[in-house]
Amino acid sequence: MTDFVVFGFQAVSGAAGLGEVRHPRLPRRAEWEFNLKLYAALGGAPSLSRTGREPDSLSDTHWHLLFEHALGVTLRPGHSVECYRNGAEIFPPMLRAIESAQRSIEFLFFVYWGGDVARQFCDALVARAEAGVRVRVLLDGVGSAPMPRSIRRKLEDSPVELRVFHPIPHWKFWGTASRTHRKILVTDGELGFTGGVGIAEEWTGRADRPDRFRDTQFALTGPAVAELRAAFHANWAAAGGRLPDPLDVPLDTAAGDRDLSGRDRVADGERVSDVRCGVLAATSAEECSEIALMFQLLVMGAQSTLDIVTPYFVPGPALCDDLCAAARRGVQVRVMVSGRQTDHRLPRWAGHRYYQQLLDAGVEILEYDGTLQHAKAIVVDRRAVCIGSPNMNQRSMCLDDEIAVLALDRDLADLLLKDFDGDCERCRVIDPEQWPHRGFVHRLRERWASIFEAQL
Q: Which of 9, 118, 366, 374 is the most buried (most CB within 10 A)?
């Protein structure tokens, strides 16, 4: 409840006025066609047909060029990625990674609330700091607001270096709009974790009850770990921190066959090796951030299938048009969002405003009703993958600092699609025939929520 009130307050007090709903100004079809011609000239993209239609498929080389030219992200080989589902799988390897760290720990999570798991992480971080490990913890001023005082005091009284990103001011209430929504844990500069999880009791368990959230977290080794670490340093500096002197830099960051989690593999297919990855560390922007461009690129690049999982879905008119255009050109588009168990009603109502347009275009919308669906992932054509912290909403596309891992790997894509199909069993498919008949109160909520859309 506290979190909802804080964000409701942000919606009223953010940079945009109540009557002003800003949306990312994204380039349209003409620029997309120009970019395809440019990449074709570079030798990596299929040529446009004389009808101006998109190519039948995008090669790996084409995706590499798109990521580099549009986002500045270079995909590099040599990564291992391991997937964890829900707190019962997520938290043990993260705690083991902290407990086994020998030189350094960087820890940044938007949500740090209370409960046993919050105390376990606090105890583990303090223990390693007392053992001589350089431990730096960065909390977001809004996301960590519900943290119990006892945990905060223990961190402050220990050798842990603690900083708060954009603390909630006592009177400058408009300063609460921009947050760091990133989730990053890096140990010894070699092992990194990112995804959607928060450090709170709500994320424990197996998502088998309404008060235990569904989420996915990823462990990585390889060159991308350095990029996760650099993203941490950027937020650390914004919070007034300085680089450690000396900065611990591992000499060998190749993924190899090392065990990512400090445990045996739980099943075949849980870990994917030799993945090409790159990291997009996006910062807040006046109109739209790199996350908005990334979403547009992934949607426009889809040729056969596009599968999206996001807890909060407020795409805005431009991205909604892109999703509709993808469906109309024959792409099977599926969007899974959190349903009746959402922890934030305003974003859900604001997102409902776009359902009719999407349904009319042939987009399949699934609402996950078992509990809060908090996982974030996009899979394009069973090949291109996006994981990390961004939601497909206005906050992630404009206001918040985010971290996204982009990858080209069919095995990783299949792993995520297997999770998607499994989660479909707890979803309610929005019926295109019934949706137009929703009631007056429902429509009134949509209109009311749209007033705050730029902050959702």
A: 374
